[in-house]
Amino acid sequence: MIPPFAGLREIDRYMPSAATLHAGPADAQTPAPGIDIQVRGLVKRFDGRAVLDGINLDVRHGETMVVMGGSGCGKSTLLRHMIGSLKPDEGSLHVLGTDITGMGENQLNEVRKKLGILFQSGALFNSMTLRENIALPLQEHTQLDQSTIDIMVKIKLELVGLREHADKFPAQISGGMKKRAGLARALALDPRILFYDEPSAGLDPVTSAEIDLLMMNLSRQLNVTSVVVTHEMDSAFRIADRMCMLDKGRMLATQDRSYFERLRDATGSLDHDEALIRQFLRGDAQGPLTERKQATNYAEDLLGETGPQLAPRPAVQPTRNIKSEPAA
Q: In whole angstroms, what is the distance from residue 247 CA to residue 250 CA?
């Protein structure tokens, strides 16, 4: 089978149209060998509004795929579909060769044992030590004896550099250490795919770089596939093998990191989608994203509805300079 990205990795012209960079056909075919996650024609609506609109994406075994986009573009919703916590309205998802689209909760739980998730906040249990947090998945989902679990916990903590802090509680460690501990717990069941939700959020630049380096080292050492949801561009360009860009539920582009680097540094005129991506990558104050916001009706911005421009009026009616009604 022809790989979904055949012909796109070798870019002969300076900058191809972003419209050509969508991932493959929308049919629910069996994934090719080496594809750990396949998304085809994914549509998700909330209250009739499409949050994801025909998403196609392949994630290859062993790579780090970075999912980018502004707040509310559908990044976290896409991740939640990949782990089975949301069901699509249309389309299909294959994870590790298995179609999870119509699976029940018990079947999904078996697939989830092969997945690890680092939540944005770390999501550690505050009443448990780091050792106890990391042991919990092993106690719940394996038949291992406690002595074996203790050894495995030490191994996972050593992987993230926290073995000496095993008996501390989450309140006793820094934000970066919480991220590391959350990653150790995500690794507890030796997953084949790791999902990261904003791993650099709330961290200083040095700690963020340390987390990025840890993620890269773990990917190489453990040969795991990684899906990273982020809008931190420094982190994205540091860790990505390939990247994709979402905007208002649409997949604008899926390509190697080098493509996005060239697009970020481009100085010539671009089509609308390319210019939008470039503005996001650079963090420019002017461009298609800001123009769209400025043109958006206030009612649409608040409620997701189109309508006539609202005439400004005070939120509270003034009480001064109002003539009193004459007494009867």
A: 5
Beta strand pairing call for 250-256 and 242-247: antiparallel
CB atoms near residue 148 (< 10 Å): 12
> What is the distance between the alpha carbons of residues 74 and 168, in angstroms, rounded to a whole number?
36
Angle, CA of 4, 8 and 13, to the nearest 5°: 165
Residue type, 229: V
Q: Are residues 171 and 52 in the same domain?
A: no
pLDDT digits (tens, 9 = 90+) for 45-103: 998 889 999 999 999 999 999 999 888 888 889 999 999 999 999 999 999 999 999 88
pTM of the model: 0.77
Residue 153 is assigned to a structural domain of this protein: yes
Q: Which two tokens stand for residue 284?
A: 């420019």
> How would you classify residue 283: left for phi > 0, otherwise alpha for psi between -120 and 50, otherwise beta?
left
Domain span including residue 158 = 121-190
